[in-house]
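From: lab user (bench 3)
To: helpdesk
Subject: output format question, protein + zinc ion

Hello, I'm new to running complex predictions and I'm not sure whether the block I got back is the full result or only part of it. Here's what I submitted:
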Amino acid sequence: MNSAILDLAELGWSGYFAAQLDPDTPLIPARVMAVHRDRLEVLGVGLDTTIAPFIADEDDDQSHATIGDWLLLDPALGRARRLLARRSLFKRRAAGTARKLQLIAANVDTLFIVSSCNQDFNQARLERYLVLAEDAEVMPVVVLTKADLSETPEDYVHEAARLLPGLLVEIVDARDPKSTACLLPWCKKGQTVAFVGSSGVGKSTLVNTLTGGDSIVTQAIRGDDDKGRHTTTGRALHRLAAGGWLMDTPGMRELQLTDAASGIDGVFADIAALAQACRFSDCRHDGEPGCAIIAATADGPLDPDRLKRWRKLAAEEAHNNESLAERRARSKAFGKMAKSVMKAKQERREF
Ligand SMILES: Nc1nc2c(ncn2[C@@H]2O[C@H](COP(=O)(O)OP(=O)(O)OP(=O)(O)O)[C@@H](O)[C@H]2O)c(=O)[nH]1
Ligand SMILES: [Zn+2]
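Helpdesk reply: Thanks, we reran it on our side. This is the complete output you should expect:
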């Protein structure tokens, strides 16, 4: 099924990637469909194969090929030669002391941020996901499910739309294909979408409706083999009925706010702009004289709750960065220690 790719556009190829080709070096574009420890599954026109993992630059932890990436393959060598610049990238700091950067998914076009029209609806959570989208440079679309269970679904749409100027908000009954048809423009040929949202809001239901009832599990089992043998394991990109691709990985499902300073400034652009007008450039907006942010909550446009949510996210972000700084300091200290041990050894030998 997947191997019946006829043209690259079907896989999400576009002028953005084509512009990166070097006409003098004939390499074959292929998209990464799954990442395993020791190999990548890639798909191209008439190409459905596995290759060795690819790292463009050992010193750059963003240069590992990840799911959704476009690689240029050398047909003679059967391996990747280049990683094309991405349109978008979801990444996160791994848990644990090393806090390594993990690449989650590349070249997603649209992030569906799913919430339901009931007690799950929560502006802070939506903002958090908006920051993720902003940081990954992916367009967010808020999808409010369970419209059929709410008496006043329009209230939720209104509340969500207020979070960001121009934010797109759709409201659906996730079980009903007629209702989810409003999402199809983002799911067409060549488009890649992903879903985030808390448990129970209807992500799987939406996905099943959008894949035409052909659930991911059945796709995986049926695989590429027309004899119905089990050939595909754990591909992360799944075909949508409208022609696009759904990015579904455990990493995508576990995404959290990390390393997202630029995203926070984008989603809270109003607060960032107000801060420019504070009297002190290092104003902490904590009772200093001439603070434009506090003034805006007292008599003006800034909702104090929004300020509170921003503080929380900014504090979390500061915490993440601190850990990163600590990690750097630790590795520097370790380097110094190692050097002095080596020196001591050397001196002993010389002595
Ligand atoms: N009435 C109604 N029920 C819905 C709607 N969307 C989802 N549900 C139901 O809500 C329940 C949870 O939906 P799921 O699709 O499993 O939610 P999920 O977000 O995938 O949850 P996790 O798998 O835990 O992440 C199921 O019983 C669905 O049938 C909707 O729009 N309307
Ligand atoms: Zn201030």
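A quick orientation on your result: The first helix runs from residue 15 to 18. Let us know if anything else is unclear.
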